[in-house]
Amino acid sequence: MSITETRVATAGAELCVQTFGDPADPALLLVTGAASSMEWWEDGFCARLAAGGRYVVRYDQRDTGSSTSWPAGAPAYTGADLTADALGVLDGLGIAAAHVVGISMGGGIGQELALHHPERVATLTLLSTTPVGPAPADRPALPGMREDVARSFAEPSPDPDWSDPAAAVAAFVDGERLFHGTLPFDEERIRAIAARVVARSTDIAATMTNHWILDGGGPDGVAVAAISAPTLVLHGTEDPLFPIDHGEALAAEIPGARLVPLPGVGHQMPPPAMWDVVISEILGHTSG
């Protein structure tokens, strides 16, 4: 299946956007997590969604891939701009509303879109993420990240030489290994994706730095219970960053939401072993 690439101007940035399938089909917008270019939504995954009758849209967020980049450590934008960029992609492609699929930080963006721009969100699919906004009084405290993951944030290793492609790829592989679940770790596949990411990134140091230091804007007082879009929650049972309790909370608090646990999956893009389940669930959820 052919891939069409274009560039879309948003407020303050120019984003690289790729599409799969027929523009006449229902649009499905894929939103990546922090420090992740669109390459992590693998070609084969996107092609199978398109073959199911969806117009699949993926894009490089600011400071990833070949979209606009800022110096590492000095992003001149906020988390709110990343949410606005998702709308800008839809506007640039002439899409009035899309089925939004977001993972991790992208799941947070999806929730923000559904809360504040409900007319643009036909359905919402949330992977490996946690509720935005204030918690209801009856929600138990959600568990924190696994000890080794918490330690990696508290005591980060020295940055590699990001100008060395081999070192950058190795850093990606190590990071993916830390966050994967109990399914076998396919190092060859991850290394191949990481090599493509590094090869087409404007500034890999900015990619690996800037999203983590953004001003997110803070809670705005709107809880996920206000989401009206039909919502599917896909969450790994072995997620070390947001344990599955986070997915359970989303499914319990968003009216009508449904949770599908992904056995053995960690905090990662759905691996090919789970594509049959994940793609079937997304196509079924977006078929209305």
TrEMBL record:
* Entries under InterPro entries matching the protein: AB_hydrolase (IPR050471), AB_hydrolase_1 (IPR000073), AB_hydrolase_fold (IPR029058)
The biological processes this protein is annotated with in GO are:
glycerolipid catabolic process
Q: Which residues form the AB hydrolase-1 domain?
A: 26-267
Molecular function (GO) terms for this protein are: triacylglycerol lipase activity
Q: What is this protein called?
A: AB hydrolase-1 domain-containing protein
